[in-house]
Amino acid sequence: MSDDSSDDGLYSSGPSYRMTRYTRPLIDYVRNEWQIGTAKYSHLPTSTSTSERPETPRWIQMIVSIVTAPRFRRYVVVYMTLLLSCFVGWKFILSPRLQEHAALLRSLDPHVKDEVGGWFGSNALPTFDNVVQLRDLDPSYLPVEKTPDLGQPSQRRLIMIGDVHGCKEELETLLEQVDFNEDTDHLVFTGNLIDKGPDSLGVVDLLRKYSASCVRGDREDRILILRHDLVAASILEDLSQDNASDFGQDPKGRELARQLSDEQAKWLDTCPVVLNMGQIKNLGQVVVVHGGLVPGVDLEKQDPFSAMNMVTIDLERHVPSTSRAGTHWTKLFNKHQSLLYSSFKNTVEDPKSMTTTVIYGHDSYNSLSLKTYTKGLDTGCVEGGKLTALVIADGGEQKVVQVRCNDYSKNWT
Prior knowledge:
The chain is an alpha/beta fold. It folds into two domains: 64-96; 134-411, Purple Acid Phosphatase, chain A, domain 2 (4-Layer Sandwich). Helix content is 32%, strand content 14%. The chain contains eleven helices and 14 strands. A six-stranded mixed sheet has the order 1-5-6-10-12-11. Strand 2 (157-161), helix 4 (168-177) and strand 3 form a beta-alpha-beta unit. The longest helix is centred in the first third of the chain and has 38 residues, at 70-107. It is elongated and about 135 Å long. The model is unreliable at 5-13 (pLDDT under 50).
């Protein structure tokens, strides 16, 4: 066996192998045998060559590439969402508010007042027996105009309280929460002191004890009318003569009317429909009423029934209504006072003093509602809501205090 060798060659591993010389890098000798050779399948038909296809316009290619891009689809979703949000905002929020604003301005136009023959209540005042229309609060109860020095208590406070409805326990708790001091504080109630709750008589006695002020609410009005009718029929104490058909289908109301003592009933009868509080800093002329007021009508000409019961108001003739289907009276009243303030803003040193702020109850549906010129304090205490006090201190400083109430609604029937 010969032993051949070469200086730059590679040797085989056995006698049966021929020596191979590689003159290029090994990678050049690698072959992918699994690939299909073109010659083997050259007899098969081929697809149309690129040159034979109709050329797609470049602008279409650009549009297709843009539309099929993931980023474009995201932008479409974002912009469509923004467009839909703008439409919904305009349709259901901005447009209705603009329409309402225009309707409020038109309803307060003096020319419209002349066209409809005057606003409701501006021509005549209906009178009712045993009802006090208007009363002025003693000015000595009002807070002073100067804000107390830091750390110093107020000299005088007005504590305005919403509908109590006979909830004496909650009322006493609220008075503790506001640190009531009968020497420096004066209580003012927005009506509906009695009825529905567990201790109407106790509430009346408590208010009489503290020499509180109040306005006549729709519940006081109903109970007092029942009592006067029972007295007039000489059957106040004769239960056998209690004919429901003559005195309405309200047995609990008749029962409460009979339970009131002469002193309690007389005190409730002195509560006016409208209480004129006088000027208070930052609030202007402050008026307390149970239901509401028609803007632009003098206090002494306000319709008593409407002042105790109104919820909404007709924008055309300013006729108030107990229905909730309409414009809430506070919207029209706030707009009226806002225009009044603007008219005096540059001509009067204190334009706020030319405006009126109404503090009211009656509307537990909207609960606490503190607007610029209207303050609603009925927060549904007797229904398990809250009893609310608006504390007005020296300098016109305001604070809201509330306590939780029990639910007495199951006892109404």
